[in-house]
Specification:
binds NADP nicotinamide-adenine-dinucleotide phosphate; 8-stranded mixed sheet; about 300 residues; about 10% strand; single chain; alpha/beta
Length: about 300
């Protein structure tokens, strides 16, 4: 028997009218390209107020215009921050806390193209900082703001079908580490899954819902960081099962806006399907140890800021 989907994709008829009757302030990181950009435009079209985050002022302005065209009835905002730097994440979190008192939806989409992206002045590998550490720090810092909202939701892009192996944070930050782009990306995803499960658990007595979402295979600039062989294989696979970015964004919209998702937290979703977490992710002891190590890295980055 075919397994029932946790999320109807495409959404049932009438969904847009239902979502347009709401107006949540939604922050999307990585909103200047790929799925994040598509999601921001779709959310604006669905009547939401958008706050987009990108590292390029020009790209933020361009997407802000597209978002305004799609959702002309609300006033949308853009923030520029380089998420490879914890000092920038801290600044962004402070600005958000001051300027966005109604922020109730967060989408963590920003990702550096796969591979070693160099060590930042804060002593952290840049790709690791964007893909994982910035998410940890941003959510940690804006949790007090989220606690003030009615039923806030967080969706973090991290594919739960990724094979689980306990990540080693020292290896990921070692400039001589020989992990290839694929294994490095996998490790970043596993960092996010461990962290999201722990955060959802820590916040289970609040109204805040935190879930992980994997969009499946979408041909975006993420593919550029892989070897020629891997790109060929992904291209072949994509021609069979790949989705466009606007289509891939639909289940995430459902997780953010649909009443069906009210109160659902700590779930891992790949496209429309709920995925059971690996047993190691379910271990509180492993998650807490990982949380402690991550906090130490954040402190290291803050100390290195100089
Ligand atoms: N595509 C897939 O098949 C796939 C599969 C599984 C999971 N995912 C996940 O889905 C999410 C979206 O992926 P995508 O394919 O849409 O990626 P993408 O097209 O490469 O877009 C990545 C976004 O992150 C931003 N970004 C990168 N480095 C940054 C930095 N230092 N500071 C701030 N923003 C930064 C990029 O900004 P610029 O516009 O300035 O470059 C861009 O807006 C990611 O989390 C990815 O890991 C994707």
């Amino acid at each position: 028997m075919k397994k029932a989907k946790a999320i109807p994709v495409p959404p049932p008829p009438g969904y847009l009218e239902e979502w347009r009757a709401t107006n949540n302030t939604c922050l999307v990181t990585g909103a200047t390209d790929g799925i994040g950009r598509a999601l921001a435009i779709r959310l604006a079209d669905a009547g939401q107020t958008l706050v987009i985050v990108g590292r390029s002022k020009e790209k933020v302005s361009a997407v802000l215009k597209d978002v305004g065209d799609a959702g002309p009835h609300h006033s949308h905002r853009g923030f520029v921050a380089d998420l490879s730097l914890i000092s920038e994440v801290d600044r962004l979190a402070d600005e958000i806390s001051q300027k966005l008192p109604n922020l109730s939806r967060i989408v963590l989409c920003a990702a550096e193209t796969p591979g070693f992206r160099g060590i930042t002045g804060e002593g952290i590998e840049a790709g690791f900082a964007v893909n994982y550490l910035s998410r940890f720090q941003l959510l940690s810092k804006i949790t007090p703001l989220l606690k003030d909202q009615s039923a806030p939701r967080v969706v973090s892009f991290a594919s739960p079908v990724t094979k689980f192996e306990l990540p080693d944070l020292n290896i990921l930050n070692d400039p001589d580490c020989e992990l290839d782009s694929w294994d490095r990306g996998r490790a970043h995803t596993n960092c996010n899954l461990l962290f999201l499960m722990e955060l959802a658990d820590q916040l289970k007595d609040t109204d805040i819902c935190i879930n992980a979402f994997g969009p499946g295979l979408v041909l975006t600039k993420q593919m550029q960081g892989y070897s020629a062989m891997r790109r060929f294989w992904l291209g072949m696979k994509s021609s069979l099962v790949g989705k466009s970015a606007p289509y891939a964004a639909l289940p995430a919209m459902h997780m953010l806006l649909s009443p069906d998702f009210a109160g659902k937290t700590g779930g891992f979703y790949e496209c429309g399907t709920k995925i059971p977490p690996d047993t190691q992710i379910l271990s509180k002891e492993i998650r807490q140890q990982f949380w402690t190590e991550t906090t130490q890295l954040v402190h290291l980055a803050q100390a290195n800021k100089g």
